[in-house]
Amino acid sequence: MATYSATAEELLTTKQESQLHVIWRRFRRHKMAVLGLVIILSLILMGAFSSYLTPYERDEPTADINLSPSGLHWLGTDELGRDMFTRIAFAARISLTVGFAVTFLTTLIGMTIGSVSGYFGGWVDNLAMRLVDFMLTIPSLPLLLVMSKILSSGGFIIQFPESVLRFFGWIMAVSDIKSIQQVLYIILILALLGWTSEARLIRGVILSLREQTFTEASRALGVSHTRIITRHMIPNALAPLIVASTLSVGGVIVVEAALSFLGFGIQPPIPTWGNLLQNAQNDLWLYPWKALYPGLFIFLTSLSFNFLGDGLRDALDPRLKI
Amino acid sequence: MEATVSQAPTTQSDSQRDLLVVKHLKKYFPVRGGLLKRVVAQVKAVDDISFTIRKGETFGLVGESGCGKTTAGRTILRLIEPTAGQVFFEGKDIAKAKAGEMKRLRRDMQIIFQDPYSSLDPRMVIGESIAEGLVAHGIGTAREREQTVLRVLRDVGLHPEHARRYPHEFSGGQRQRIGIARALALRPKFIVCDEPVSALDVSIQSQVLNILRSLQRQYGLTYMFVAHNLSVVEHISDRVGVMYLGKMMELADREEMYSNPLHPYTKALMSAIPIPDPNLKRERIILKGDVPSPLRPPPGCVFHTRCPIAQKGLCDKEIPAFRNVGQTREHWIACHLVGDKEGN
Known about the structure:
The complex is a heterodimer.
Chain A: H1 2-13, H2 15-28, H3 31-48, H4 50-53, H5 84-120, H6 122-137, H7 140-152, H8 162-172, H9 177-209, H10 213-221, H11 225-261, H12 273-280, H13 289-316
Helix pairs in contact in A: 2-13, 3-5, 3-13, 5-6, 5-9, 5-11, 6-9, 7-9, 8-9, 9-11, 11-12, 11-13, 12-13
Chain B: E1 18-33, E2 38-54, E3 58-62, H1 69-76, E4 84-89, E5 92-93, H2 99-106, E6 109-112, H3 126-136, H4 142-155, H5 172-184, E7 190-194, H6 202-219, E8 222-227, H7 230-236, E9 239-244, E10 247-253, H8 254-259, H9 264-270, E11 323-324, E12 331-333
Parallel strand pairs in B: 3-8, 3-9, 6-7, 7-8
Antiparallel strand pairs in B: 1-2, 1-4, 4-5, 9-10, 10-12, 11-12
Helix pairs in contact in B: 3-4, 3-5, 4-5, 5-6
């Protein structure tokens, strides 16, 4: 009896560590997800070491304009003779930062509003969902344009804390305060417009979850609403949330690209995959690689995140046998 | 139109003897319709029921599906807010308790659910599910909580190592035992068992019933056992109440109820219990028609539309009082026509 309960205790105390281990083991079996993770990690590394990867300066014009890909310039050069690979690698820093930051914020806002709305129902739900409806009736692109114009023209200034500015400047390897601020504006605008779909998604899942008996069981035990939401509702809504979030990273990069394309996003010479793509359209037929490679990177990122999301969803679901 | 219930089905509310006193409990669910979502009707799920549950006993509540017995159980625990009425638990009115008080009361009153599948969070290992109440009430250290979890797991016949597993790794019967363990962890005094065995295999049913019984002795529990299976209720209950369409029809000791049912509805129910002997024949009372909609319960006695002995002009006009007709033992019925002559 004594040894029996001793092993049981041991089992209980080692729980936390082994659970993460289990998730990792399950995740590893998902080949495409692992591939996605590897690609994302390489893109991050590529961004992080962008200044060491090539001998070229990011914004330095040279005489070698519009070269096709070669051993010297892996992905060719643009119309100012700047090395495309250098610019794309740097752009990874900015595009991924925008993608992650916006997704983080939209997920946070969407999860909070959606779970509170779905769990409590009634007038809270009504209010939140009418707000969502309202947000969705606004044509987002014109609003994005107007907002970014207002913010970037200096007509309305948000004072970001010094540390935030420095942090983002460091991640994106941008030193110009105005440019950092502009990126932060874009992040905020995209986040404020993007949370609605996540909120709706979470609300829908939680509407069905709260009718399940285990919610009632928790209430009968005297568990608080906050704890029910954080320990039961959100973990059970995690699968669709993760998928939506990972999909969103790719989507955000594309929207940022669209904004830059229209000239309202992050401005050259700071490269993002979006404005590189825009830049390429003037002579698309002559020098297609200038559009091909940034596009390829957007595509690759988006795809990798989708695979990653799939794998995570399966790994996090204890019911699924993989 | 108020039912004339003069008193709760004990002559006096005896705080030494009674754990739970329910008085004129009502739960109406509003039905909303139309453009403005106005309340157009009310479903009278529980319509003025009164009874008491004594310390240490098992009170069986039977009735066919939709009669309001589950709603009654949940309203008593205030998982659903009652429309009207009072529920006294150890003298305190639960229906009026404030949030903080209600939380304290929840330690003493627990529930076991019918569906062993949806009653456990699929994302939580069962040890955590069982410890949840302890965490919510801040009982004990993490280590003490672990000990409690292991103890209740053992009490319901599961192994300590099961604590780390997820609900999907268990069978229905095992899950039901986990549900029991979760309710037990807080060391409650009173447990509402909401059809705890009706979703289980017959072979597992007796297992779970026996566990419930031995736990009752071990922990000194009081049960309210909600079920539609009359044999199960007979097996486990000390006293039995019969509900029909949101109303209590009859309430008596188990022996009294099963040997001498008075209400025509109870009689019909009793005649439907299968006898495991093909040679034995019994006269079945087949009720005509269906249960009327609780949206528009019949006037007078709610049972008169199907009652074999209903009298025109009386049963369809006046609501029968819920009265005690027993002489030596309590025997409560709500019927105009029986009781007085036959009361023993």
